[in-house]
Specification:
There is one protein chain. The protein is of the alpha/beta class. It has 15 helices and eleven strands. The chain has two domains: 87 residues, SCP2 sterol-binding domain (Nonspecific Lipid-transfer Protein, Chain A), CATH 3.30.1050; 292 residues, 3-Layer(aba) Sandwich (Rossmann fold). Strands 7-6-5-8-9-11-10 form a seven-stranded mixed β-sheet, with helices on both faces. The chain has a four-stranded mixed β-sheet with strand order 2-1-3-4. Strand 8, helix 10 and strand 9 form a beta-alpha-beta unit. The radius of gyration is 23 Å and the shape is elongated.
């Protein structure tokens, strides 16, 4: 069937859904699917219509990233309407769990691909301390800077860090958590990352803060860390581990803890009980362009593998709504600095990150994905759990 007949058939189906979208063709013609469109999708060639008339979040995202289509409108509206298009045509069932490669080289390459864009790129839309993980909002009116500092304190209070204790931060990012643990809580900290940019930034900041005698950053795989630590934190890192490697990951944390040691795992989880992917092709887009080999376990699998590795979960907190708020802040800030982002990352990466951040905000808002903090202790024996009996200590000033 010629493309114009397929397109007319598509328009007829879509108009029944009332999606507030304007479709504009390369020849200047446009078609409104709603009297008040909020987003304009521009098909730059006749060939690009194949992505439009068979829409998934992956096909639309790929067409946008590759420049086959352009999208005008606020980026949060863009993702909402792209999802409406995909939902009107597609199957809402969730694909099965992924199985990434996860060799040491592939993990290092995946981390470098995602995190080593440039420190200037990230600093333009993250908070002042460069925290790239879910914030903790006491109020929706909190600034991003406030919420990220509150998140770090929330974690350090939950693990009941004490002066002089040794802390290992796995996937330490740009160093904000370990530096605060040293300066405000009196800990001695080691952070590990596979990102060269993060390593160099954190090392320079540690030196600038004058805490190099108590705080160290290493360019090191968590599987190569040796020694014993009173506390272990992992924030926004276990998404890269792989479902088949979860028990080994938690077993490594278990072995690095002293008897009575406490761990905190803060990570994104699937809301599908079978650890399935997000619907409508969103996970395919992320795997293709953003997080190669990323895999998200359901909370039940996370707890199972944690227990199998000899860790006893004591506290689980779902911060899904907090991550939705965090990502809306990031997406708004990214949009505000759009021209600068283009110059820093280039057109294609600008497009990837623009729709990725907004897409994740949508996913967390609509319960496609979640974020769980789990506090656990090294299991075994009556004296292994030395945390207070109640949660009151977690909310101290």
């Amino acid at each position: 069937m010629p493309w114009n007949h397929l397109f007319e058939d598509f328009l007829g189906r879509m108009r029944t859904h009332g999606i507030p979208l304007r479709l504009q063709l390369w020849n200047g013609k446009h078609f409104d699917l709603h009297p008040e469109p909020r987003v304009t999708l521009i098909a730059n060639t006749a060939g690009s219509l194949r992505h439009v008339i068979n829409p998934t979040l992956d096909s639309l995202g790929k067409a946008y990233v590759e420049g086959e289509i352009d999208l005008e409108g606020h980026v949060l509206d863009v993702v909402d309407i792209a999802t409406q298009l995909a939902a009107a045509e597609g199957d809402s069932s969730r694909p099965g769990a992924r199985n990434g490669r996860h060799s040491r080289d592939s993990d290092k390459n995946a981390i470098s691909y995602h995190y080593d864009v440039s420190n200037e790129f990230y600093s333009a839309w993250l908070d002042k301390n460069m925290v790239y993980s879910c914030a903790y909002f006491r109020s929706e009116a909190d600034t991003l800077d406030q919420a990220q500092e509150q998140k770090i304190d929330h974690i350090l209070n939950k693990i009941n860090i004490q002066p002089g204790q040794r802390l290992l931060d796995i996937g330490c990012g740009w160093g904000a958590l370990m530096i605060r643990a040293v300066k405000q809580y009196g800990a001695r900290a080691v952070g590990v990352t596979l990102s060269q940019n993060q390593y160099e930034y954190a090392k320079e900041r540690i030196a600038r803060e004058g805490i190099a005698d108590r705080c160290e950053v290493r360019l090191e795989d968590y599987r190569d860390v040796t020694g014993q630590f009173d506390r272990v934190t992992s924030v926004g890192m276990f998404e890269h581990v792989g479902l088949k490697n979860l028990e080994g990951y938690f077993r490594r944390i278990h072995n690095l803890l002293v008897d009575g040691g406490v761990a905190m795992n803060h990570g994104i989880t699937s809301t599908d009980v079978n650890s399935g992917d997000t619907p409508f092709g969103g996970g395919d887009f992320i795997d293709r362009y953003v997080f190669p080999d990323g895999e998200l376990p359901h909370i039940s699998l996370t707890l199972r593998e944690m227990c199998a590795a000899g860790l006893e979960p004591l506290d689980v907190e779902n911060l899904r709504r907090h991550y939705a708020l965090t990502l809306k802040h990031w997406a708004e800030r990214f949009e505000e600095h759009g021209e600068r982002m283009r110059k820093l990352a280039g057109e294609q990466k600008y497009r990837i990150w623009r729709v990725y951040l907004a897409g994740c905000a949508y996913g967390f808002t609509h319960d496609w994905i979640s974020l769980n903090q789990i506090v656990a202790v090294k299991a075994g024996g009556p004296n292994m759990n030395r945390l207070p009996l109640t949660r009151d200590y977690m909310y101290r000033g």
